[in-house]
Amino acid sequence: MSKLHLRLRSAKLVEAATVIAAIGTLTVLSAGVSPAAASEVTRSAEVHASASDVWSAIGGFCAIKDWHPAIGTCTEDGKTPPTRTLVTKDGKVTFVETQVARDEAAKTYSYNFVSSPFPVSEYVGTITVTPKDETTSTITWHGVYTANAGKEKDANDAFASVYEAGLAALQTRFAN
Fold this sequence. Notes:
By secondary structure, the chain is of the alpha+beta class. It has helices at residues 3-30, 51-58, 64-67, 152-173; strands at residues 39-47, 71-76, 83-88, 94-103, 108-115, 120-133, 136-147.
């Protein structure tokens, strides 16, 4: 073989070895590491009011201060999409949330956390009002998130508690 041919062959072997080493490194780095699984919590409540009446009461992004028993204040930043800052009635906890989707016709909106005391990341919550008939509606609050390692139960319990308290207050508000 000529020197040129040997050099080309040697360069190809080095290139192949580099690719194999890189693949091996990626395999070692990813071994035993799996992405955290997303968790979800959903709670629903039936209320005695039309979907339009319910949406009028809860559909505003800051309307949560008017119906959720734990929320003392809500302020919006006035931007598009809006970001709201919620402070609990005792003033001890603050949530900052950005609206990420809204559909007036479907009576639904979604939001994510900018900051929150909950042990989660990648949270997206959705509130939806669905008509059952002309005088009854179902309100559904759904959240999808990744709980911090070892905090899955804490996160699930926190969301369930917040959702249930809000929905119970709405059932009382719309009771016959």
